Amino acid sequence: MDFDDRAQLDTSQVEDVGGGGGFRGGGLAIGGGAAGIIALIVALIFGINPGDITGGGEPAGLQPTSDLSAQCKTGADADQSEKCRVVGVVNSIQKYWSEQIQGYTGAKTTLFSGGVQTGCGAADSSVGPFYCPRDQHVYLDLSFFDELQSRFGAKGGPFAQAYVIAHEYGHHAQDLLGTMNRVGQDQGAESGSVRLELQADCYAGVWAKNAVDTGFYAEPFSDADIKEALSAAAAVGDDHIQEQAQGRVNPDAFTHGTSAQRTKWFTNGYSSGDPARCDTFSGSI
After folding, report:
1. 117 close to 124: Cβ distance less than 8 angstroms
2. What are the pLDDT digits (tens) for 74-87?
3. In which element (H, E) is residue 122 found?
4. Can you state the angle between helices 192-210 and 223-235, rounded to 10 degrees?
5. What percent of the chain stands above pLDDT 70?
6. pTM (2 decimals)?
7. Is there a smaller number of Cβ atoms within 10 Å at the N or the C end of the chain?
8. Which residues does 31 contact at the CB level (< 8 Å), separation at least 6?
């Protein structure tokens, strides 16, 4: 995963609030710990609305704690710094979707540490990355990627991070296209929730196929890059997480799809490069 050294980064799309995004107002501060992390990831990892758990709330008017514009100027910076890499990935993803969705409006990514107050309520790091449709922000604690490797067995790597971010922006695309409003909060192997998540995986693959055309990457992603994404997708399958958490698999509680389904739909998107091939709502998944 190699950025074009000459690419100009737009840091206005990412804010870093560090540990200053703590809870304010009526939102529930979600508990951490191993059991809490597993339970919440089952429900919310790559999810949509932590407000369903936290009880909603208003954004806290967070103030950035670091000046990304001073650190992240070019693709060369994105190759050297994790936070600058996030900026580059977000820039590329939004460039792609701005050319696919008429009237596209951007979604800002908020980097936080520990906890954050959002338009969907208060959340802590155990929630994992998520997209909040109420304020159209993606929220990400970078420590999640260590958890993805150490607890869930993903290979990790820069492109695993890119996959996670692209999945969340897949939810933003669904929000803008109205798909999200047509899906309820049901659970189960064939549920609308699972189909929504698998489509976001497919959208992540579509972006990956077209990423070099956005002007931020020096060359197409390698086979090793794609394997990182597939490993991350498999690690967060409902069946894999349930097996680790409770020693058994309960399809009736699925919210995101199995490891096989998640890797399948990312691969479908990557192979086709066409968002029209991401219809997870018709037929079997």
Report:
1. no
2. 999 999 999 999 99
3. strand 121-124
4. 170
5. 84
6. 0.87
7. C
8. 124, 126
